[in-house]
C-alpha cells in the first residue's frame, strides 16, 4: 500500500480522481468535505468551560470554511442531545452541513442512566436517525465504537453492549457507520466484521491514530480511514498515512480538537501550505479572526497539504480522492 496504491485499487475511482484532479488545476479552488467537525461544541458559540468569553461566532467559522473551499461538513453526534443538536445545525446550514446520529463509547453509560431505560434511548436514537435520513439531514450512524483508553468514563461491558445494540440499529436504518476506536482493535474488528456484510456502504473509522497493521485490517474489512491533525502527530502516524490507499482516504478536522501544532511530526510537511487566518487568544477575540487552541474547519486544507506532501503527490489529487470517497459513502446531497 504505497502512496495510495494497493492490490484492491478500484479503476473507476482512479479515473474519477484523475478527472477531478485535472479540473482542479489552473487556479481553481480546491474543494473539501470535513467529515468530522463538532460544530455543536459551545466554544463555537464563544462559551468555554461554562463562561461566555466572546460573542457567538459560528457564522464566521462557517464562512471561513467556505472561503477555503470547504463545501460540505459532517457534524458529529455523540449522544442523543448532541445528535439532536447536530441535526438542528444541519437544518440551519442546509446543503452545507449534515449530521451523524449515535452515542459515543465514552457516553455509552447514558443508556443505563436514561430515565425510561436503555431501550427507550435506543428507540429515540433510531427514530432520530430514521427521520433525519428521510429528510436528508442525517448521513451516517455514529459516532459509535469502543474506547478502552477511557474506561473511567464508561466501563468495557457497557461499551461492548451498546456498540452491539447500535450496530443493529445502523443495519436497520441502513446508514454508513461513523466509527471510533481507541486501544480496542480486537473487539472492535470482531463486532464489526459480523455486521458490515449487511451495510453496503460500510463506513469510516474517524480520527485514526492506530498502527499500520490495524489500518490494513480495517481496509480489508471494507472501511475508509479518516485523517486529521491527531492522525499526524508522530513519525509512526506519518508512515501509516503514507500507506493509506487514496481510494480509502477521507479528511477531517475534528474541531475544536485535533489541531496541528509546530511540535507535531506534521509540521515539516506544511512548507507550501497557504497561511491560515490570524488567530488570537479567546480573551482578545476580534471579529474575523480565529481563536488560538480552537480548531475549526478552515484548517482542513492544511490536513490535505500534509497528506499530499507525505505521499509526494499533488494536493489536488488528495482533495479529489477524498471528495469522491466522501460523496460515494455519505451522499451529502451530491450522490450521482
TrEMBL record:
<dbReference type="InterPro" id="IPR032466">
    <property type="entry name" value="Metal_Hydrolase"/>
</dbReference>
<dbReference type="InterPro" id="IPR050891">
    <property type="entry name" value="TatD-type_Hydrolase"/>
</dbReference>
<dbReference type="Pfam" id="PF01026">
    <property type="entry name" value="TatD_DNase"/>
</dbReference>
<feature type="region of interest" description="Disordered">
    <location>
        <begin position="1"/>
        <end position="21"/>
    </location>
</feature>
<feature type="binding site">
    <location>
        <position position="180"/>
    </location>
    <ligand>
        <name>a divalent metal cation 2</name>
    </ligand>
</feature>
<comment type="similarity">
    <text>Belongs to the metallo-dependent hydrolases superfamily. TatD-type hydrolase family.</text>
</comment>
<keyword id="KW-0378">Hydrolase</keyword>
<feature type="binding site">
    <location>
        <position position="254"/>
    </location>
    <ligand>
        <name>a divalent metal cation 1</name>
    </ligand>
</feature>
<keyword id="KW-0540">Nuclease</keyword>
<dbReference type="GO" id="GO:0005829">
    <property type="term" value="C:cytosol"/>
</dbReference>
<dbReference type="InterPro" id="IPR001130">
    <property type="entry name" value="TatD-like"/>
</dbReference>
<protein>
    <submittedName>
        <fullName>Mg-dependent DNase</fullName>
    </submittedName>
</protein>
<dbReference type="GO" id="GO:0046872">
    <property type="term" value="F:metal ion binding"/>
</dbReference>
<dbReference type="GO" id="GO:0008296">
    <property type="term" value="F:3'-5'-DNA exonuclease activity"/>
</dbReference>
<feature type="binding site">
    <location>
        <position position="143"/>
    </location>
    <ligand>
        <name>a divalent metal cation 1</name>
    </ligand>
</feature>
<keyword id="KW-0479">Metal-binding</keyword>
<feature type="binding site">
    <location>
        <position position="206"/>
    </location>
    <ligand>
        <name>a divalent metal cation 2</name>
    </ligand>
</feature>
<dbReference type="InterPro" id="IPR018228">
    <property type="entry name" value="DNase_TatD-rel_CS"/>
</dbReference>
Amino acid at each position: 500500500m504505497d502512496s495510495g496504491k494497493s492490490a484492491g485499487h478500484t479503476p473507476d475511482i482512479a479515473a474519477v480522481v484523475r478527472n477531478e484532479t485535472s479540473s482542479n488545476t489552473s487556479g481553481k479552488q480546491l474543494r473539501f468535505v470535513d467529515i468530522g467537525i463538532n460544530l455543536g461544541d459551545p466554544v463555537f458559540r464563544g462559551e468555554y468551560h461554562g463562561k461566555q468569553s466572546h460573542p457567538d461566532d459560528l457564522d464566521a467559522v462557517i464562512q471561513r470554511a467556505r472561503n477555503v473551499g470547504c463545501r460540505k461538513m459532517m457534524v458529529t453526534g455523540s449522544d442523543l442531545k448532541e445528535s439532536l443538536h447536530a441535526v438542528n445545525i444541519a437544518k440551519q446550514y442546509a446543503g452545507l452541513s449534515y449530521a451523524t446520529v449515535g452515542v459515543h463509547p465514552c457516553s455509552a453509560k447514558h443508556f443505563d442512566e436514561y430515565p425510561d431505560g436503555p431501550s427507550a434511548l435506543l428507540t429515540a436514537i433510531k427514530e432520530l436517525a430514521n427521520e433525519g435520513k428521510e429528510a436528508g439531514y442525517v448521513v451516517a450512524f455514529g459516532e459509535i465504537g469502543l474506547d478502552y483508553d477511557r474506561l473511567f468514563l464508561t466501563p468495557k461491558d457497557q461499551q461492548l453492549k451498546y456498540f452491539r445494540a447500535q450496530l443493529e440499529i445502523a443495519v436497520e436504518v441502513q446508514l454508513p457507520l461513523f466509527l471510533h476506536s481507541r486501544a480496542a482493535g480486537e473487539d472492535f474488528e470482531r463486532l464489526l466484521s459480523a455486521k458490515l456484510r449487511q451495510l453496503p456502504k460500510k463506513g469510516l473509522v474517524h480520527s485514526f491514530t492506530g498502527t499500520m497493521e490495524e489500518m490494513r485490517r480495517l481496509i480489508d474489512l471494507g472501511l475508509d480511514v479518516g485523517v486529521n491533525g491527531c492522525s499526524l502527530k508522530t513519525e509512526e502516524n506519518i508512515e501509516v498515512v503514507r500507506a493509506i490507499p487514496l481510494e480509502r482516504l477521507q479528511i477531517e478536522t475534528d474541531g475544536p480538537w485535533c489541531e496541528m501544532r509546530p511540535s507535531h511530526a506534521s509540521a515539516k510537511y506544511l512548507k507550501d501550505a497557504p497561511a491560515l487566518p490570524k488567530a488570537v487568544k479567546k480573551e482578545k477575540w476580534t471579529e474575523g479572526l480565529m481563536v488560538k487552541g480552537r480548531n475549526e474547519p478552515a484548517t482542513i486544507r492544511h490536513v490535505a497539504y500534509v497528506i499530499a506532501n507525505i505521499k509526494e503527490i499533488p494536493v489536488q489529487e488528495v482533495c479529489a480522492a477524498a471528495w469522491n470517497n466522501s460523496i460515494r459513502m455519505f451522499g451529502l446531497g451530491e450522490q450521482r
